[in-house]
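subagent[fold] <- orchestrator: predict structure for attached chain, return tokens only, no commentary.
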Amino acid sequence: MKTWQAACASSGKVKIQIPGGKYLLGPLTFSGPCPKVTMLTIVHKGTLLASTNLGKFKSDVWLEFYGVKGLRISGGGTVDGQGAAAWDKNSCHKMKNCQALPVSVKFIGMNDTIVRGLTSVNPKFFHMAVIDCQRFTATDLTLTAPEDSPNTDGCHIEGSTGVEISRAKIGTGDDCISIGHGNTDVLISSVECGPGHGLSIGSLGKYKYEKDVKGLIIRDSKITSTQNGVRIKTWENSPVSTIATNITFENIIMSNVSNPIIIDQTYCPFKNCGSKDPSKVKLSNIHFTNIRGTSATPVAVTLECSKGYPCQNVNLKDIQLKYINGSDATLACANVSPQFSGTVNPKKCTAPIAAA
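subagent[fold] -> orchestrator:
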């Protein structure tokens, strides 16, 4: 922390070096602003180990970067959340109101950030979170946790503008990427996802303070042996009405993926979420293009939109998905009239929507 404080108080371009070795750390917050610094580079070549004593964590984050402009992180180092000792204390995958465990690395209110070559293993909760940031780029990430580790999302993005994540290898126990509310202009590309829950927009519509989502692109990626492929999920009984629009999924290869394409506007991961009122998240201008491969489920495409706010302008172009046993896959639709172009298989809305 003394090194950070000295660097932040410097001027011009500043560099912090973390040499090879293992370093045990409790929760730390690296705060800005650093008014005279034009670029602050952390060259991280070691392994940072999170404390396994949950009593040391007074908030839901281990390593937090807050309010800094021009941060660069490189060096190929590792952050190890040592989450296995805490996963059995996580209840967020079982109940809606829960105490979240610490995210390994969280970026809040940052501007002009580049993260390159970071490895994260076994977080207690999410690997990374990008919250209320502008111009955030992350490349060459490796994010790894066991398939059964709860809520270990690879990277969660919320309230941010101008986010790009590329060349990432993510195998974890929840969404490889989760794009939450309030995001604009997000590009996800060249991601290898699996195991995990897929590449997800959402969940949306859980809280009353949520904002719209606009301009999201997920492309040029491969998804393998996941519970979902590309997914939009919104809670039933949303407290407020919001919009999610101009969303594109393109050039995605699926291999043995359950639910390769899914819009789920009755999302409820628990036994009971209370009211069954329809989701108030309005989905429009959704494009699925050049998605191909194998489905581990007979229903390869599910478009289950809100009965209160049916989806508008959902387009499927050049879709080739086969059931893993070689037979034709099927398409299930509710409260949507999808538009088809190119060669699309499955094409007809024939499969029934499974009852919750």
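orchestrator: received. Logging for downstream: The mean pLDDT is 96. The chain is about 0% helix and 55% strand.
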